[in-house]
Amino acid sequence: MTPRLRTAVFPVAGLGTRFLPATKAVPKEMLTVVDKPVIQYAVEEARAAGIEHFIMVTGRGKAAIEDHFDLAYELEATLRERNKKAALEELERERPKAGAVSFTRQQEPLGLGHAVWCARELVGDEPFAVLLPDMVCEPGCLGQMVEVYNRTGGNLIAVEECDPGETDKYGIVGVGETVGDGFRITSMVEKPKPADAPSNLYINGRYILQPGIFDLLGNQTRGAGNEIQLTDAMLRLAETEAFYGCRYTGRTFDCGTKLGFLAANVALALKRQDLAGPFREELRKLLG
């Protein structure tokens, strides 16, 4: 019987150097796409997929993330006094339940694998999801993954197609036999040349992992960038445990890049009933 997925880890300790000077004093995860910070999109995606425990792996200068998911007494009192019911209801609806969010520190910037390992005591001995907040998925990706995971069990990675000529920008997986709505992953290669790539399916920043990954991350040697790489530990885990792929049918916007961030703002604004019409007209003016 496949263990139920109830916990998700969000690595939010990155410095955001690609968005300086905006991220000098503001966490990159708090940059807004339309009117929500990117971290909120990831949390909402996880909640919609049935996640109950949200673990943030933070670092210095990230207090704004903790405040964002907490009560804002003065703000909410002011909204009540001014009878701003819609705004108040939205804040209450989006706030996680008390005790549902945990925070732990990654004291050194030692890579994604190290950030995930920092959450080990909070996750415990159960499967967990990892969501990279920079990657905004529309519609939510984790819900699709859970449907596949409930049939396959094991470890699951979400993938999307990229241009076959651009595989050297991504982590690429090899495709094995079909299993339910997913497929068995036969290899994982970091940024292969197009001629050497096993496919054009890239890892889009969503994972479901078994707790055995923590022991491997605990003694994982540093890899690319002199950091502890999650992919290196997954490759070791794949020697003893099954890894499956889930073909995500939506679109992922890499909000860690300026181009992806801008594209996400445009795409999600055009999906808003209150913004789509006038915003489309503004775009016509700019492009005309």
Q: Main attributes?
A:
33% helix, alpha/beta, Spore Coat Polysaccharide Biosynthesis Protein SpsA, Chain A, 288 residues, 9-stranded mixed beta sheet
Describe the structure.
- The chain is an alpha/beta fold and 288 residues long.
- It has a single domain (7-287), classed as Alpha-Beta Complex (Spore Coat Polysaccharide Biosynthesis Protein SpsA, Chain A), CATH 3.90.550.10.
- 33% of the residues lie in helices and 25% in strands.
- It has 11 helices and 13 strands.
- The model has no long low-confidence stretch (mean pLDDT 94).
CATH architecture classification name: Alpha-Beta Complex
Based on Cα principal axes, name the global outline: globular
Please trace the helix and strand order, writing H or E for each element: EEEHEHHHEHHEEHEEEEHHEEHH
Global Rg: 20 Å
The average pLDDT score comes to 94
CATH level 1 name: Alpha Beta
Write the layout of secondary structure elements.
Blueprint: E1 7-11, E2 32-33, E3 36-37, H1 38-48, E4 53-58, H2 63-68, H3 73-81, H4 85-94, E5 101-105, H5 112-117, H6 120-123, E6 128-131, E7 135-138, H7 142-152, E8 155-161, E9 171-179, E10 182-190, E11 201-209, H8 213-218, H9 230-237, E12 243-247, E13 251-254, H10 258-269, H11 276-287
Parallel strand pairs: 1-4, 1-6, 4-5, 8-12
Antiparallel strand pairs: 2-3, 6-11, 7-13, 8-11, 9-10, 10-12
What does this entry show, briefly?
A hairpin with a 2-residue loop joins strand 9 and strand 10.
